[in-house]
Amino acid sequence: MWISILGCSGGIGPGNRTTSILIDDDILLDAGSGVGDLQLQQMAKIRHIFISHSHLDHIAFLPFLVDSIFSQIKEPIQVYGLPETIKALKDHIFNWSIWPDFSELPNKENPVMQFNIMAPHTSIQVGDRKITSIPVEHVVPGVGFCVENAEGKSFAFSGDTATNNSLWKALNKLPSLNTLMIESGYPNSMEALSKMAQHYTPAILADDLKKLNHKPHLLISHLKPGMEIQISEELHEYLAEYQVTCIKSGDSIQI
Ligand SMILES: [Zn+2]
Ligand SMILES: [Zn+2]
Questions:
Q1: CA-CA distance, 16 to 185, in Å (whole number)?
Q2: 53 C-alpha to center of ligand 1: Å?
Q3: pTM above the 0.90 mark?
């Protein structure tokens, strides 16, 4: 199973793309600005898009993606999310005011995109990969996702989250966990803001990781631009017993 990091930054700027992860060539987790680096043929191969929550850095390029591949695909792209996430997309993005409602185009019978409600703790099987939705703690209703393949390899993605119990409880139920992509958006000195924005700092993440029974390779995402070095140094200090990689857009991992 290939995990391609299209974007994972907490902001924009040269080389920085917001959250989007391509699994093999047909599954997308979130649709931030990293999607914009794909070739048209790569975009057309994406069949399933799982959205962690409604914040703009995780959905910004979904409208452009479906517009770009409009003439390229015959079957609708399936978009999955919590009821609140799908409602936010319909009400605030695909509302004919900000962007056309591509779930009705070119017609309602065979649109380019279909919305699917995905409740927490439910799974969707796509080929030999199973994607499971795990509730997390954020400013808006949000989930992370776990992707397991037929060989028993597993990759989990936290989405955006503050300290919580649900993610760790769900991950502990997995027989194994190879790789965990988890956010740590702010340095320890910005703990007050991180609590308001409901993101991790290295110290809070280190505390929460004590709840995890696995020792996965940690891929750290969502670092605020300009603070990458500070956060990275704190991560290596607080998470010394883990293999820790501060990922960037363009990275690929095979598990
Ligand atoms: Zn968010
Ligand atoms: Zn975010």
A1: 14
A2: 7
A3: yes
Structure confidence by residue, pLDDT tens digits, 126-181? 999 999 999 999 999 999 999 999 999 999 999 999 999 999 999 999 999 999 99
Residue ranges near ligand 2 (ion) with Cβ within 5 Å: 57, 160
Q: Is 13 exposed, middle or buried (0-12, 13-18, 19+ CB in 10 A)?
A: exposed
Residue 57 C-alpha to ligand 2 middle, in angstroms?
5
Q: Quote the ligand 2 centre to 65 CA distance (angstroms).
A: 19
The residue ranges of every structural domain in the chain are 2-254
CATH topology of domain 2-254: Metallo-beta-lactamase; Chain A (3.60.15)
